[in-house]
């Protein structure tokens, strides 16, 4: 997901998406510890996507004030 797509989401959708991605990341990390993933770089990409979404959410909070 690109930053432009993240900016198009509403705040509620963004919060829901962050929660869903965090659950998916947790599941990936657990699965990877048990047996290696086909693409372990996916963990890094998911972590970065969550950071981008949290950054956008924080930016919205700061712009409201």
Automatic annotation (TrEMBL):
GO biological process: translation
GO MF entry, a single one: structural constituent of ribosome
GO cellular component terms, semicolon-separated: ribonucleoprotein complex; ribosome
Designated gene of the protein: rpmC
Annotated source species: Coprobacter fastidiosus NSB1 = JCM 33896
Claim: Nucleus is one of the keywords in the record: no
Family in the record: Belongs to the universal ribosomal protein uL29 family.
InterPro entries: Ribosomal_uL29 (IPR001854), Ribosomal_uL29_sf (IPR036049)
Name of the protein: Large ribosomal subunit protein uL29
Record's keyword terms, sorted: Ribonucleoprotein, Ribosomal protein
Domain of life: Bacteria
């Amino acid at each position: 997901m690109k930053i432009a797509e993240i900016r198009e989401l509403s705040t509620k959708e963004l919060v829901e998406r962050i929660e869903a991605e965090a659950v998916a990341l947790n599941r990936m990390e657990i699965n990877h510890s048990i047996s290696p993933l086909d693409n372990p770089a996916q963990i890094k990409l998911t972590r970065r996507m969550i950071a981008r979404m949290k950054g956008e959410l924080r930016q919205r909070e700061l712009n409201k004030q």
